[in-house]
Amino acid sequence: MDTELTIALDWLKDGKKAAIATVVEKKGSGLRPAGAKMVISERGEMHGSVSGGCVESAVVEEAIVCLKNGQPRRLHYGISDDTAWSVGLMCGGEVDIFIQPITFDEESSFSINLMESMVNLIDSHQSFQLLIVLEGQYCGQTYILKTTDQRFQQDMPAWMNGQIQKQLDSVMEKGEECIISTKKGQIFVEPYAPEPRLIIIGATQLTDAVTYFARRLGYYCIVIDPRRAFATSERVPQADELHVCWPMDGLKETNLCTEDYLLLLSHDDKLDLPAAIAALEIQTTYIGMLASQKTREKRFIQLEKEGFRREQLEKIHAPIGLDIGAKSLAEIALSILSEITAFRYGRLYSNPGKTRIGTQTFDSRR
């Protein structure tokens, strides 16, 4: 996946110098959130965004200066800042951006080795926290902290390890970026969690469209289908994993868990119902079913015979997707991912068929 980190690594391996710019604090609207990143090469190439377009050109110029002098720098842009007006930050917000040169020196504050460690942890779906010292004598020093590996704690200087452990525990629990203060200066803490898994039953044409959008939204996509003619990399090229087997075997292989999102898209009871049973038993985060109202009721009756109560079944989102008037496969996939996004960020009513977007209400069961 082309993330800012992998792009920067490619530049470095090609012999280009590179810097990484991170939003460490933001206030107001219209800005990228804390943790948003942009990487900049010495040639002025850039990938990612730190403001949605307002200050990128200014950040590129500052990053090139940082690459020349080898020093990290914290920048502030805001409506009350004359410099902000000159770069076009007119949305009324404020943003602090921290720029770090990436070097080949293992002893530097941000080395290529540290970058590779981050990429490897992300690729292996491991959780960790990135700690960046924003000021003081340790400005720019960056550390990786894995909650299951005390080695990184031991690598941190004693002044940091002793002061921030309780605050780190709170950050990990909330899963949100923040700045914590110590006697030696402020530290930006950025938690990294594994990509949410989207498990799809049925390698259909709709599955191809769904995985296309889902990958771009940051989901790790797993497709399960026993039909060899359907389950091919040519039909679903965006799938991270493709399991040619029956759903129960595939869900066992992938270790279905409570954090997963499950989509039942085969429209075949032999495939969808066993997967629904497994997901209901484990209580996965989200279950979506491609079905008409008539099919939904028919399947719910079958699931009740398996011992599930109606209130349990009401947690299944069916018919799946927001009512956006979708007709094409791409539009239907968009409606499905829109519903999942609304659900993920708490914008759905308790009734799965009702979704509130802003001040409007849409009925996904029409």
Report on the structure:
With 366 residues, this protein is an alpha/beta fold. It folds into three domains: 102 residues, no CATH class; 69 residues, no CATH class; 167 residues, 3-Layer(aba) Sandwich (Rossmann fold). Helix content is 36%, strand content 24%. The strands form four sheets. It has a six-stranded parallel beta sheet with strand order 12-11-10-13-14-15, sandwiched between helices. A five-stranded antiparallel beta sheet has the order 3-2-1-5-4, with helices on both faces. Strands 7-6-9-8 form a four-stranded antiparallel beta sheet, with helices on both faces. The two termini are 36 Å apart.
Total DSSP helices:
12
Low-confidence stretches: 350-366
Summed over residues and divided by their number, the pLDDT gives a mean of 85
In the CATH hierarchy, the third-tier topology of the largest domain is known as Rossmann fold
Separation of the first and last Cα atoms: 36 Å
Helix-strand string: HEEEHEHEHEEHHEEEHEEHEHEHHEHEE
The helix fraction, in percent, is: 25-40%
The biggest beta sheet is recorded as: 6 strands, parallel
**CATH class bucket of the largest domain:** Alpha Beta
